[in-house]
Amino acid sequence: MITSHLYEGHEGPQSEHARHWAEPPQTLLRRLLLKVDSVLLGKQDTIKHTLTALLAGGHVLLEDVPGVGKTMLAGAFARAVGGEFKRIQFTSDMLPADVIGGVVLDARTQDLVYRPGPIMANVVLIDEINRASSRTQSALLEAMEERRVTIEGKTRRLPVPFMLIATQNPLSFEGTSSLPEAQLDRFMMRLSIGYPGVEHEQRMLEQYADGKRLEPERLRPVVAVQEWLQMQAEARQVHVHPALMRYMVAIGEATRRSPDVLLGLSPRALRDWLRASQAHAYVEGRGYVIPDDVLTVSEPVLAHRIALRTGSPRQGGSAAALIRRVTRETPFPKEATAGSGRGRRV
Known about the structure:
Elements: H1 13-17, H2 25-37, H3 44-55, E1 60-63, H4 70-81, E2 85-89, H5 97-100, E3 101-105, E4 112-116, E5 123-127, H6 134-146, E6 148-151, E7 154-157, E8 163-168, H7 181-184, E9 189-191, H8 198-210, H9 225-235, H10 242-257, E10 261-263, H11 267-283, H12 291-302, E11 307-308, H13 319-329, H14 334-337
Parallel strand pairs: 1-8, 1-9, 2-5, 5-8
Antiparallel strand pairs: 3-4, 6-7, 10-11
Helix pairs in contact: 2-3, 3-11, 10-11, 11-12, 12-13
């Protein structure tokens, strides 16, 4: 427990809002994590990162090879969170109207009416997002950031809450193309699932053999929409010490000044980093952010938002490795770690 005066008065989200909950919200979140974990075995870190991003009001991009459970993870979260769920399979011939909807002629009234697209849902799963054309990708930009769509000059708000989970295959796969930088920057986290361990893969096969495999469509919601909205609001009230925010700004400046980086972190990236840190602290049951929260979410929030310069001395490295190096070499302000007993990650 942190005893520093920096965190006094921020004992935890449940202390201030307990009268609104029949049980602590962290209990519901743990139940949600266990529910998704029963579908995607052995991937607790990825599941927790996904929960953190969605709780922070962000979108998630799942990137990995086919068959490791990207769609399964996204579908499980969509079912467990509740609300209206829509799935969109992106293809090369898809048009913007197939996503956001369009204006059509009503045969009965002879009036032009708006036909909602599948983007009009609380949880939207876009499968293989990098198979669609740039024209279709551009239709998502306004929806992802402003939570609205504009059709024929009229703006329509998306449902609240609105969460987008997208999957994509590596760019070396046939029929795929890279997402625009502006679109990548709108994803709060980019995550990779990876292959399961031997133990969990054997357990999965045993479940299929016994007919006891739990599929995402069989999951029932763990939290209601109004509960989820309240959790999101409480997560945004988690206290962040100004010293931690100075550390985040220092990291952003370091990526922009680095000779190895062509495109550094945007202000939106730092905003998302802050929100994700707050959400991570909330999931842990704290009303304040500590350095460990900031470091835990740094790589999945930041790595996909920078581009390395070709021909740099560290060209062989990855963006994730650069983020790890910069966060390690940039010291936390002393007041951010005073009394915490934690400090830097080695």
